[in-house]
Amino acid sequence: MTPAFRPTDSSPAVTRLSALAPLGPVSLAALDEAQRQRRKIAVHREVTLAAGSHLGLILSGWAARVRHWSDGRRQIMHVLLAGDLLDMEQAPDPVSTIALTPVEICPTPRTTSGDDELMAAFAQSRMLERFYLYRHIARLGRLNAVDRLTDWLLETHDRLALAGLTNGNRFDLPITQETLADLLGLTSVHVNRTLQLLRRDLVLEWSGGALCLIDPEALARHLDYQPAHAGTIKQASGF
Amino acid sequence: MTPAFRPTDSSPAVTRLSALAPLGPVSLAALDEAQRQRRKIAVHREVTLAAGSHLGLILSGWAARVRHWSDGRRQIMHVLLAGDLLDMEQAPDPVSTIALTPVEICPTPRTTSGDDELMAAFAQSRMLERFYLYRHIARLGRLNAVDRLTDWLLETHDRLALAGLTNGNRFDLPITQETLADLLGLTSVHVNRTLQLLRRDLVLEWSGGALCLIDPEALARHLDYQPAHAGTIKQASGF
DNA sequence: CGCGTTCTTGACTGCTTTCAAAGATGGTGG
DNA sequence: CCACCATCTTTGAAAGCAGTCAAGAACGCG
Q1: Which of B193, B12, B123 is nearest to B184 (CA)?
Q2: What is the pLDDT of residues A35-92, one digit of tens each?
Q3: What is the residue-averaged pLDDT of chain B?
Q4: Alpha carbon distance A18, A27 (integer Å)
Q5: How far apart are CA A237 and CA A123, in angstroms?
Q6: Which residue from B127, B142, B229 is facing A89, i.e. has the nearest CB?
Q7: What is the nearest CA distance from A137 to chain B, expressed in angstroms?
Q8: If you measure CA to C1', which residue is closest to nucleotide D28?
Q9: Where are the beta strands (DSSP E) in B69-199?
Q10: In angstroms, what CA-CA distances link A139 with A22, A184, A190?
Q11: Which positions in chain A touch B107 (Cβ < 8 Å)?
Q12: I need a surface site. Which of A110, A238, B64, B101 has the fewest CB within 10 A?
């Protein structure tokens, strides 16, 4: 009731987490407190958490989990957007988290252990991430360049919508074609040619960093694409 | 101390979970009890849990999480082996869990909520699954057919080893080339040709359902492959 | 022994990559 | 305000990896 947690209502991260699980004043205040410890990370820099901390929250910007090979090949396995959880587990593979744009992160609220609402939102976030990983595997395994690109754009539109970062069919896509290539398992040359096809066929417009999907419903039909609305994914035991 | 939970020491599922987190008598007894409710699922049938139950444990056999398209294309996103956790969340995509061989499953122990050891093992199992999903994305995105196949075989060997189901560099691979194709985002024809290359170059032998990797270390070096030993993946907060 | 499934093979097509170089774009300093 | 430079985008031609189609061989199970 104090205005303390009102201002952050407009935070994309809070918007997303609220959509995943209804958050009461206590949770919102905890998030508000956590956001005060926000830290900025410059483009191309690695996203890390304070030593000992294993869980972070993306507040703004785009980051990516990237696998790289010794010969210079790269594959982006997952993109992190505002409101996404950042799990910094240690793995044997050469995987790192890189800022694709300037990124703001904060540690997750300390009160988490006692806060069922936030726990629920985080559990939901983890389920969604696994769902996105599954979908990305299907995308890379069986779709051609045109479908891969449009399918990913639909998904990204939906994810940004969860955080309130879309404007109808339009959203900011602040990444290069090269990054898109690393994401979709293609070369930047072929991403470029694919984009030209899609622009020519009036599937999308992309200029000045803003992308517009002209007819998302038709695309979704063609791709068998099902949006993952908030609450679409359910599980009983949340641990 | 009673022999009640001794016999299951030889169960692949228990072997795997014990490798993920040390399990005491209470956890082992709980697993033993759960295994008594084992259920068999025939090949090609969908793997389901009792209504209301959302968590299961694979006891034996091979299962797969499969995405299929309306035109008949299929992509296997993840393979489930003995000791793997089966999360039956509901998702919007047409994803199902199919038995690649006869499969035995059981519900997870009821005592889970109070059993820190089992919780730790399950949390570890979830981390590993995410790690495998990441790696599969990298595989599909950037590796050619030969490397995709060998990389996946190395990983599968390591996973089976966790459950005690390997014999040196040899293990049972009870799936068809068609399934391998659905898994690796290839066609069965090309999987066949790739296997012939690998056999010709003395990379592997595969007959009678048993596969043998001739020089796994050389393969791993060539692929930048890092095995995920038990305990390789760490995270502090396990929720 | 017979039949269905799985494996194998050949020829041809096609999507994507590779290599190389020429434009466009945007930010910076003079 | 413009020149300049780094980055990003666009283009063309040629090569390669994987897909498609079709048919025959081998295998395994009842």
Answers
A1: B193
A2: 999 999 999 999 998 877 779 999 999 999 999 999 999 999 999 999 999 988 777 7
A3: 90
A4: 10
A5: 10
A6: B127
A7: 5
A8: B208
A9: 74-80, 85-87, 95-99, 103-107, 166-167, 170-172
A10: 31, 8, 16
A11: none
A12: A110
